[in-house]
């Protein structure tokens, strides 16, 4: 599956019915899912463990989420929206370089364990892959397009090529997969190459 392309909307999971969420209980469950994933790893994570960590019954978790993957994904996506900020200064190469470094640091920090777990789940579960794209990757793609659009061709109807977005995120994920650091120099080279390609589009 190509995560950078939207999937058919008909394949999306239906919204799970249930009682309206208690905000405090919801926050406790989401926070617990992130803490436990980082502490014990995704493979050892269970709904029962999340419930115990949050101080609720497991049926409370199941009432709102169908699986541990769904809980962790919502928690991770919400956390990303709160933490990851897009800054556009007018200097595209510098903005893109900073975006790359910030994204890499986040995904190789404590939250990196969560990201790799969700990505692995998406690779083996096509239904979850769609949810992963809709709830997390789409917003990250949009953030990168915002940065790239600041220096793009201003012709009416111009869109940032999906292949360029894939290339930039690929530079991050390849280094994660091979345990290589994305140094400032490497980020600068990727940013410069991306800007050159964008201007040739």
TrEMBL record:
Residues 1-13 have a biased composition (Polar residues). The keyword Hydrolase does not apply. GO terms for molecular function: DNA-binding transcription factor activity; transcription cis-regulatory region binding. The keyword DNA-binding applies. Pfam families: TetR_C_11, TetR_N. Residues 46-65 bind DNA. Residues 1-20 are annotated as: Disordered. Keywords: DNA-binding, Transcription, Transcription regulation. PROSITE patterns: HTH_TETR_2 (PS50977). Residues 23-83 form the HTH tetR-type domain. InterPro entries: Homeodomain-like_sf, HTH-type_TetR-like_transc_reg, HTH_TetR, Tet_transcr_reg_TetR-rel_C_sf, TetR_C. PANTHER family: HTH-TYPE TRANSCRIPTIONAL REGULATOR RUTR, TETR-FAMILY TRANSCRIPTIONAL REGULATOR. This is Transcriptional regulator. It comes from Lacipirellula parvula.
């Amino acid at each position: 599956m190509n995560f950078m392309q939207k999937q058919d909307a008909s394949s999306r999971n239906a919204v799970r019915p249930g009682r309206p969420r208690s905000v405090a209980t919801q926050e406790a469950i989401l926070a617990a899912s992130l803490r436990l994933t980082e502490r014990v790893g995704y493979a050892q994570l269970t709904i029962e463990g999340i419930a115990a960590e949050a101080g609720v019954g497991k049926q409370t978790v199941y009432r709102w989420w169908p699986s541990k993957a769904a809980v962790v994904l919502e928690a991770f996506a919400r956390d990303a929206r709160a933490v990851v900020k897009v800054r556009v200064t007018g200097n595209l190469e510098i903005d893109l370089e900073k975006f790359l470094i910030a994204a890499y640091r986040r995904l190789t920090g404590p939250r990196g364990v969560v990201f790799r777990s969700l990505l692995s789940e998406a690779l083996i579960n096509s239904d979850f892959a769609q949810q992963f794209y809709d709830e997390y990757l789409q917003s990250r793609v949009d953030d990168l397009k915002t940065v790239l659009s600041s220096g793009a061709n201003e012709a009416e109807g111009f869109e940032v090529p999906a292949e360029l977005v894939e290339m930039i995120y690929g530079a991050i994920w390849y280094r994660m997969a091979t345990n290589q650091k994305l140094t400032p120099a490497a980020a600068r080279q990727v940013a410069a190459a991306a800007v050159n390609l964008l201007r040739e589009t």
